[in-house]
Amino acid sequence: MVSLNQVSPPGQSTGSDSGTTHRSLRRHVGLIGLMWASVGSIIGSGWLFGAKNAVVAAGPAAVISWGIGAVAIVLLALVHAELGGLFPVSGGTARYPHYAFGGLAGMSFGWFSWLQAATVAPIEVEAMIGYAKHWPFAEGLLNSSNNTLTTSGFIVATLLMAVFVAVNFLGVRILARTNSIATWLKIFVPLFTIFILAVSNFHGSNFTSHGFAPFGSKGVLAAISTSGIIFALLGFEQAIQIAGESRNPKRDIPRAVLGSVAIGTLIYTLLQVVFIGALPVSSFANGWDKLDFPGIDGPFAGLATVVGLGWLAWVLYADAVISPGGTGLIYTTSTSRISYGLSRNGYAPQMFERLDKRGVPWFGLIISFVTGVICFLPFPSWQELVGFITSASVLMYAGAPLAFGALRRRLPQRERSYRLPLGGVISPAAFAVSSLIIYWSGWHILSRLGIAIVLGYVLLGSYAAYAIRKGLPNAPRLNWKAAQWLPVYLLGLGLISWQGGFGDGTGRIPMWYDMGIVALFSLAIYYWAIHVALPAEAIEKEVADVEVVDAGGH
Description:
The protein is mainly alpha-helical. The protein has helices at residues 31-42, 46-58, 62-86, 96-101, 103-131, 151-169, 172-200, 216-226, 229-233, 238-241, 249-278, 299-306, 310-344, 362-375, 380-391, 399-410, 423-440, 443-470, 485-499, 513-532, 536-550.
């Protein structure tokens, strides 16, 4: 086995077993680059809308929603921190379930990871165009009737995706520097907004008008998923996706993951507080669910204008283009690294492993660009489907706690740069929480997500079957026995959602009973999964096969 610390010189080969590539991913990224990759994904377009959507759903109790969301994300981040230090490989979220449960589970969670990453960049591009409509040069890019792109808008969107891809082709070192600059701006503007609104127009009485929690506990919990709270906080895993390009991954990955969550949680919570406190009383006179004020379609910018801070509004309109742009850039990177990982695990053609002279997986970037262009097609139903896929992206995170539990049990003595205290408690709790977040998304979203899941099985399953039949070098081992719990989990969670009361469910399962059922069901799946996980010898073989490649050889 080749150690991950024994990296060959950048761009040189250490051998070949398939002829796919003669280059290695370059380890140029330090702690700040890794952390800013995650922070830049967490602080995206979500900060401009999350506070408004949350207060409409939960009233001032939205502050509690952010707290619950933060706890959930911290649990998931802690699990990822140990996994990232244990296996610092590119496209990690697509590979941990593969190591622990073999091909079928790895293929499933790998598809969830790729689908989530691939749809974020084009959606952020459309957000940039949508926010830019306040500027004269952006007129005519969107159809006023259905908010889809016009022909000129489609061309601009395609060019913006091309810019993301072009920056990625310059190499991971240039990418990290570019993203760091964008992230500094993305952090500064929200913090500056928090300060200005807090000192110029804050009314503590707003938190008790109409009651602190006018929509009760259901509003607080629904806001976590449906208003974008949990999804605003996601993105910490980006440091893991480029772990194969980290200078000191075992030390820096855990720090980057946990540090990014701390920064994101602090900023989002403070934004929620100042948004509620700065609102004029007239804007929620008819109730928080009927919140209204001029410019509410751009909540913070509109609020700044209403309270007499027009200059701040223009700063926010400018940042509304920069923030989603930075997020789109790093998700373009992530998409290519996840497809690299999928190919390494045998679920996608080996073309995705091809690297250019800068160590960039160029074919994965091209596919990322093509996917983005497809997402720009002016079909409202397709736009809606993309939104559902992105909203339910937390499904990919459910694989990490399961892999954590299995790897702790099967490989207890393997070196870990960060060992999670109370991991045996936190890991099942993280899986139960991720299942609850999925459930809170509602039947309306999950029923449509099923379409995307089936599509993934058709695409990746077809290639896996082809690779196995042809005896290709990277043909996956599907390991049906180790993944026997997976169809039960997916179908069972869907059934509970259908019978529950969130998002157009039937409501046959009463409030709180439904969440208790989800929690108990998740714990049963968790212990079933780690019981049937691959044996230690099989896991070591899977890891050894891919470590050689990620250390610089192939």
